[in-house]
# Entry
Amino acid sequence: MLQPVQTKTCIFPVILLLIMLHSLNSLGQIYNKENISVRSFEGWQGYNADGFQEMLTGKITTRIISSQRFNVVDRANLKRTIEEQNLQLSGIIDDSTVVEVGKLAGVQKFIVGNFTGNTVEHHPPKYDDAGKVKEKAYYQATVGVTIRMLEVESGRYGESAEASASGRGENSEAAFTHALDSLAESIVAEFEQHFSIQTFIKDMERSTVTIPRGRDSGVKVGMDFVVHDLKHQSNLGLDKVEINSNIGDIGRLKIVSTEANTAQGRLFGDFSRVVVGNIIRETKDRIKIETSILDKFFGWVTVNAGADLGLTKGSTFNVMKQQKDIIAPKSGEVYATRFTPIGTVIITEVQPTFAKGKIVKGRYFIREGMKLKETMPFGGWAGLSIGYGLFSVEGEVNRTESRFELDTWKGTVSPIVRNQYRETYGKEIATVDYTAKAELPHFSSVLQISTYLKSPVRKVSTGLDFKLYNFGEQDLGAWSVDLSLSQNIGILPEILYLTPGIGFGIGCSTQQIPTNIVKTLSQDRDDQLTAYSFFVLGKLSTRLKLGKLVLWADADYHTLRFSQWKYRVGTGERNEEGEETTEGRLIDRNLVPYPDVRMPATVSIGITGEFDFTLPDVSSSASFPGIVRR
# Structure
């Protein structure tokens, strides 16, 4: 009875050892890096062709090695293989020979490139007016290449790409070196897109997973992976697994820490179907983060994602509310659970494993536990308004009747005393009678057109207002433009705001006087008087937001005053186009019916159309400068 037991005891460790060896062998097959070699670039035009061709080849090789994704077979190894097989190095000139050598050296892919152009231009130094050098002389180099991937096993080329880069230097060689540095970066970045890391989930604890690849295999913190609905089979290397469009993705993860042979990642979004063994694949497209609300306090929330998932200050999330399953009344078909956006949160503070954010929309509907889904950066609101109101007027009226001598030759106007004028050639009499001029009204109407941008977190508005004033006097008119900065204080946040603000602007007023006087003074270059006023303002607004419409009431106080009345007169000089230039010249106040006009206050009401706007998401781009695929 003891013999079977002894046999079983002896065999079990052997079986266990065989299983372990098989597993290790399988892992070796799974993570065997591809053998890559860079064939020397060709086609450089000009001096030191061999040197620059080898320089780019070496720079690309160095960067591929540092990525740790591939085994790089360098020229020394290729040369050793050639010598062992009694081949001539000079014979590596056609693709068939390259493929033959590649197979002998164990190379699976060759990067093959040709220069399409290399130019350099000298830029001389630039000097300022004092003769000092404000920009040193430099050389600007531009280099272009075509890159192809040669598959050794099939002997065929994959898709090709064109790349170009520029560089500066104190001499042509330095300029070309900098250009080749940039070119190598672009080529390797493009090359890595075709060799995404593929592995599987080895261990999983809640949202934290471990994968059996680490730094030595090119895995880096911050990498994004898609989890696919496909299980890893231990008897099949991952390089044999093809993931096509029919295989769905069931989760997302981001690498948060790495070791030599393993890495840890964090799942986010809905990962309820993710299990140990699921195959994951690196993606170059930035994955939109999904998380949830841990806590809500008035207009602020805490979310369970932080710097570990690549969250940054300013990230924008839609708050998603789960809708109930919908059953079709006729077929009885049950539609999947849906989520609809009910609000927006912008991240304002990021910690290692959590973050805090400001609710910018939907604060009355958002609850703890709700799902957050990253979206385009939210820029705020843009508004376009129209309003109508009253403005106050203070001013002087020049109620006089006077006679003036107009000297059309000299362009002068001189007051005269009745019966003391002797008419001569080139002179005439003008009578100015303002005795019937009415007082300016204390209040008159104003039309206001405005536009503004409102920031989402600080609720600060930058506005531009145009106002057209009606004095009820056909000889007097005015307009103003002002730029203001306002703070929106939520009395009932997202609904009712009190908005104080400050600003500055410019106003313009025109006034008519007898035409012959203005034409005489300006020598036919003007037919009216104009006054400008720079002013500052303080304002207070009340805004009631009803969806995309905002009802508002404004009260402004400003230092708008028109008292410097001018007409245009020639300077006797001409501009570059040969046209005579003009300048403003003050007129005698006795010739102006309203010499001083002050408009200290404005009260208006109106309606605004307010719309959300987003900012471009520059972080989501996976393209590389200088690369054009063919």
